[in-house]
């Protein structure tokens, strides 16, 4: 089973790229982030025509998350994280697919930091961590994947000294990610590639992709029961080089 995550940076504007990638790689389950489309403007028919079922949590102009599945039923279990009824951002969606609980997330960016946006990021992280603990306690196989907007270590960022004050790399952010992982989750890409330089995002500016000046901010966290089934993991880096593409590349894992 191949499971992927992809921050599409606008699902309608990037639809040709998304459909081409789906057709070429044929993942079984896909989590999308940054749809930037209201609920009624999600391109459902195009996704169905590509062979996928879909659920989505849209929002006008910003955010938005979705789960797609090829030939598998998607049983939605949650949209939005618990813990803050005032939070209207479309950043989390969860479903049971193929015997696995899949949580698709788009964690806040948090810049500028310090400030209200950074406070919101850390509060959202805390809510995610509490919910993740409950998911682990269920004993079910769980994947938490998406754009975490965190570089966990210096190995995950090109020229880390330039990022020390950025919300994606500040000590508080990295500590929050470590606290989450330390519950018992496994970082799938690092599990299989402990020493490699892996990036999942390259800015549009300063030829970042051409220079491979990237960041690893899209992650797969696996519950203990899935780690033994993990057979492969990687980044479809070439997709970042396509015309009118997202600034993220798709990231994937393969499970037995």
From TrEMBL:
Gene Ontology BP term (one): DNA repair
Keyword Manganese attached: yes
Active site: 106, 147, 248
NCBIfam families named among the record's database cross-references: exoDNase_III, xth
A GO molecular-function descriptor: endonuclease activity
tRNA processing among keywords: no
Residues engaged in binding Mg(2+): 7, 34, 147, 149, 247-248
Limits of the Endonuclease/exonuclease/phosphatase domain: 4-248
EC nos: 3.1.11.2
The protein's name in its UniProt record: Exodeoxyribonuclease III
Pfam families linked: Exo_endo_phos
Swiss-Prot/TrEMBL site (Interaction with DNA substrate) positions: 248
InterPro entries: AP_endonuc_1, AP_endonuclease_F1_BS, AP_endonuclease_F1_CS, Endo/exonu/phosph_ase_sf, Endo/exonuclease/phosphatase, ExoIII-like
Species name: Mucilaginibacter achroorhodeus
Family per record: Belongs to the DNA repair enzymes AP/ExoA family.
Cofactor note as given: Probably binds two magnesium or manganese ions per subunit.
Cofactor(s) needed for function: Mn(2+); Mg(2+)
Marked site: Transition state stabilizer: 149
Biological classification of the source: Bacteria, Pseudomonadati, Bacteroidota, Sphingobacteriia, Sphingobacteriales
Positions bearing the site annotation: Important for catalytic activity: 218
Keywords from the UniProt entry: Hydrolase, Magnesium, Manganese, Metal-binding
